[in-house]
Amino acid sequence: MTRTGPSSGPTDPEDGNTQETAFTALLEDSAEDLYDNAPCGYLSTLLDGQIAKVNSTLLRWLGYTRDQLVGHRRFADLLTVGGKLYHETHFAPLLRMQGEIGGVALELRAADGTRLPVLVTSTLKTGTDGEPLLIRTTLFDARDRRAYERELLRASQEADLERERLQRLVATLQRSLLPPVLLDVPGMEVAAHYHPASPDQLGGDFYDLFPLGDGRWGVFLGDVCGKGPDAAAVTSLARYTLRAAAVYAPDPLAVLRNLNAVLYQEYKGDDPRYCTVIFGLLTPDGDGFSATLASGGHPAALLLRADGTACYQPTPGGLLAGIVPDAPFTATTLRLAPGDTLLLYTDGLTEARTGGATGDRYGEEDLHAFATGLAPTTASAAVAAVTDLLTTLGDGVDDDTAVIALSVPRARR
Amino acid sequence: MDVSNRNNVFVTGKSDGPVVMLAHGFGCDQNMWRLVVPALAERFRVVLFDHVGAGKSDPSAWQAERYSELDGYADDVLRICRELDLRQVVFVGHSVSAMIGVLAAIREPERFAKLVLLTPSPCYVDDDGYRGGFSKADIDELLESLESNYLGWSAAMAPVIMGNPDRPELGEELTNSFCRTDPAMARVFARTTFLSDSRADLAKVTVPTLVIECASDVIAPREVGAFVHAQIPGSQLVTLDAVGHCPQLSAPEITTRAIASFAGASR
Coiled coil where (chain A) (predicted)? Predict the structure, then answer.
């Protein structure tokens, strides 16, 4: 019956009669017929699964007669073996506990052995005292839907694989931007740790430690703005520039000026790229080392002394490298005596969130207190402690974090 | 990490009673025991927990490699016993947890007073001269069943996985409020459960053992119950007049009676 215009409706005598006739015909459709020939399968079973009642639709789907099923088979007998296991371990327990379970995908085995994917919903009918009496089940033909779900599942599995592939690629690339192992520095213990914020994305932190040929060593640690492949390209350029510049003229201020010139030249224009960096020149000095540190906008290094104190080694006034043509950098010189540990780190540590919703950050004061608690220490113990700290901060660490520690062992007696 | 949080340990019942530890099987969590706990709690100190990967266990404790062996789960059972300083434990393991209990009792027999193996099977797959009831292909089909319910499960698990405190209504929308499992973890547990073979371990059990089977159980048929009984020296066998693999739900009274009379009897 179709309605053709605004005039048609229940008030229209002719149309009203037609509608009434249709309703009457529907009312004569018995509940029994509705049950038997419903567009879905109906099944009533005893609590142990014995089939007590089944509609014609389901019998037609399965190719069984009513006598073959009622009183002779259990619901689980109609399932494939895998479906039986699923029924016993998931479906039946949940139904008993919740009184209902819906939308479960199972496969029926028809009399001729063919399989019919269905979506099954069951409810537990209880008596007035709440005791379960029987189980009512409806089954919907799910052939098309199952094909669609299989396609979704395949797509989701493919996406999982792609993500794994991406993570492997990121991990490999990240490793290529860091030294695979730290070299042994005579008279010094060294340790480093890199904590990526996300396995899906390349980070912009970097460090390296390398000999300069005359007993002196260069060390640097920095943080490129941004993340991802673009940041990685800058990281790579910064790392090789720092190493090459140090061989040519190891004065830390000169090294940073060279880096600034290269980054500025490469990325001037509308896509500026810059980094914060700290560069150290380590020179053997009696029973310890002399360390000259120059920094461009990088968090100050921490010196954890043999006497149990810890203090920042600021280099105020230094600017980010790569942002202006003649960026100023400043340097400081300190002595690493036996029992002293120098800690370089990136701001992933000091900017880690600690307060949840309040937005508190870990901060320099917390780090200073932490370092004081550690001192005196060694490079490996300091890096292990910071690694534990990062684990404790957990999700609060939302940026990459790199740390490198250098310590002069105490003289053996 | 604290083992009690990791395994969502829940202790109830008579605080000075003998310890009865209930271990759930594959497919659900400690809710499986809800119909037998009230009666047991009158006489015993009842210890419930969720295996890692199931129920409200800590998802961050999941390690696919560790939980690809029943030994990983047995190790967790022993850790819980140590942390709670449980002694003279009557360990009741349902389904795959029966074998987890067997492994734990072999490793530290002094920890356990008795073992109750509820619908156990040491090996689900048929082997030369042994009938476990299933072929390798059947088990693959089960894994496929798990896969085809993967989407529904993910939807049910999403709020649990995401732990989104801003949207508690997500939790309320769940159809299945019990037995939530992460699909990836369930896959591993399914493989571990149905492809393990612990037949050779049965003879090594030295603690008094009760085997409880059902008169009709598709997953652990009666010949398997008889096998377990024959292999464990001095074990007792009780056959419940019950259908299905989970008598603690389908026939809680007789299941409770069987557990309690064995657990409460003096050695």
Answer: 145-176
